[in-house]
Amino acid sequence: MDAAMAPGPVPEKRPRAPKKSGAGEVSMRWRLAVASRVLAAVIGGYLLASLASVCLAYFLPLLFQSSRAEAAVLSMTLSFLFYLPAVLWCFACRTALRAWLGLLVPSAVLGAVYGCARWLV
Amino acid sequence: MLLATLLCYAGFTALCLSMNRHAEDLLGAALSGARSRAARWLGWVVLALSLWVALVSLSVGQALVQWFAALMGSAFVLVFVMSYWPRLAVSLAAIGAVLCPVAACIQLLA
Amino acid sequence: MKEGFRQAMAWLHTWAGLVFGWLLFAIFLTGTLSYFKEEITQWTQPEIVPHEVSDAVAAERGQQWLQANAPDAKRWFIRLPDERNPDIALTYSPANGGFERKSLDSVSGQPVQGRESMGGEFFYRFHFQLQMPHPWGRWLASVAAMVMFVALISGIITHKKIFKEFFTFRPRKGQRTWLDGHNAVAVLILPFHLMITYSSLVIFMTMVMPASILTTYGSNTSAFFDDLFPAFKSAPPVSETAPLASIVPMLEVAAQKWDGARVGLITVNNPGKANATVALGSNGADHIPHEPGTSLVFNGVTGELTQQSSMTAASLLLAGGMYGLHMGHFAGTLLRWLYFFAGIGGTAMIATGLVIWLGKRRLKHAKSGVLPFELKLVEMLNVASMSGLMLAVVSFFWANRMLPVSLAARSDWEVKTFFCIWGLALLHAFGRVFFRDGRTAWREQLILAAALYCLLPVLDMLTAGSYLWGSIRQGQWTLAALDLTALATGIFLAWGAFRFRGEGQSVIASKLTPTGSSRKQDSRQTLTGGSELAREGVSEGTTVQEAR
Lengths: 121, 110, 548
Hints:
The complex is a heterotrimer.
Chain A: H1 28-63, H2 68-92, H3 96-120
Chain B: H1 2-17, H2 20-27, H3 33-57, H4 60-84, H5 86-109
Helix pairs in contact in B: 1-3, 1-4, 1-5, 3-4, 4-5
Chain C: H1 2-34, H2 37-44, H3 55-69, E1 75-79, E2 88-93, E3 100-104, H4 120-129, H5 136-158, H6 175-187, H7 190-203, H8 205-208, H9 211-217, H10 221-228, H11 248-257, E4 263-269, E5 277-282, E6 295-299, E7 305-309, H12 314-327, H13 333-363, H14 373-402, H15 410-435, H16 438-473, H17 478-499, H18 505-512, H19 520-524, H20 530-536
Antiparallel strand pairs in C: 1-2, 1-4, 2-3, 4-5, 5-6, 6-7
């Protein structure tokens, strides 16, 4: 995308989204980083979207006058609005590790919130 | 819906004329600063007016669907006509503006 | 971070668009055709002539036939005819499982005598099942939908000058024109693209995102559907039998309750048993949201109304509304044509994107004139998935007119023709791209496709002319409209083939030099990339110096 960008440093250490090295070759390391981001987007994103919809489906009937079927429908409908930013994040963040963390941490939080609400409260 | 569509086209044409590069193509010269701003305001107002016209004549759902269709259709027609026959694009907007009262009568009577 | 973000989105848009572009082109094209699937079916079965028949008469005929031929079925479905569906479509589940279908002529009440063909249903089903075994096709289509959503949003983010270049289209400027065109069909029809893409996710959401159903209902997922559609709950049949009441009076109750909206689907559970029920669903053409939960349920023996349900919950109207917008059942003729053209726009958006992807990278190899393997692969797939698919579509129609009417399994043969031609197009593309050049592949396939599309009306007149003229005399323009659309498509493809005439070198040369424009912006974007270009992202890129 940007041969004109900062030359020099090893591709993965540059504070940018995945890019090739200036010479125009694609290193194995870069390929693995991209693959990692793709996996994070697909799996991590799905996990985050599912957990978001599970939380919505749980809390909506408590907050509004909706039956659990209606809440499930609304939560599924909105789930893709969580999936999309998750995917964008995986490719916008600086490293592949951040891609995973950025999805797994919120997922864990949502899971914990749901878990506590359902089984502890 | 005819009135709303004519207004959409007119509104988009006004917005287009407020941009220097397009005004040069369509009118031969860019509009002056004040006129350009006026064209921009006019464009948005006319688009909002077309939405209102749609909403008063149909149920909300139908109105929104048909208005978006008119919006997309008129924008597409404008860009297409503008790219090959720039003067015609403006003429069409003028003709549309003239036909608006007629379309309004049709809508009121129907 | 801003620049990095936009460039990351540009990278994502480019690669997501390429990898799924070929599949999405096929999905969009067949989906666009599906807006006229009933009309296509009428064309493929010209023997079935639409008649004006009241709902009551049609329902009675359907009930009579089912009573006589499927008295032991567990469930009956009767789809009443309307402006776009000339026949009475019956479905019933026989005791040994599965589903049987039958079409009745609306006047005679007898099974229709039309050539066996899937008609428009073929394109419709391909559109979301991709001819793959259940449920893999739907999953793949849903994945493609999510990638489409990502590509749309990343494209919007990347298109920095989305407002400034809203009205911009500069013809006859090579790569720049292709990019302007891609932006134009994307931005000007953006509401449609966003609606279609998001709604396609919503349509299969219970399959792809079931987590909330599972956590709310556990393993009892059927309870979820029963909660949503209480009218469709069907009890197992009791052994006691009782004659089924006539459905006709029930239609009158529906006309009253529904204020003029018509009945579309009649569902009979346990016909002939003591606990038979009849559920009436409204015709989708009368309202925007898809509302399977809006129904009237009657006792099948006494004929009295037992349950009236409607979907008024906001969440159900939201999901149903999206479903309804995607399907467009509610659309009248004008709006349906607009849906069709919007779909063509979406298809063109994907097509231009694929062409641009290759075109940009091809410029780098202009001097050597030889493309590396990967780019040849992309070119081959571009040709096969676009002009190849156009060939396959028209060959389906040719097969419909040319295969003998009484041929066994002729419907399967029509489908086989579609896929065989598509496969041959792939082979041809392979041969030409790898052993000659891509232009030849495009040119030859486009010429053939143009010929087949333009000659389709002629074929129709020669093989089924009596039906064509008969329908016109009766004031029904469906058959003629399809022929004319085919002709228009053929002319467009011929123009495309004309553009690919001759050798490619002169075209590449013209892409390198700026064509005379006095505007400052244009001269800025040519030969030298530079930081200016990097900052402006993909939307300004026309130069040779495009890094990947």
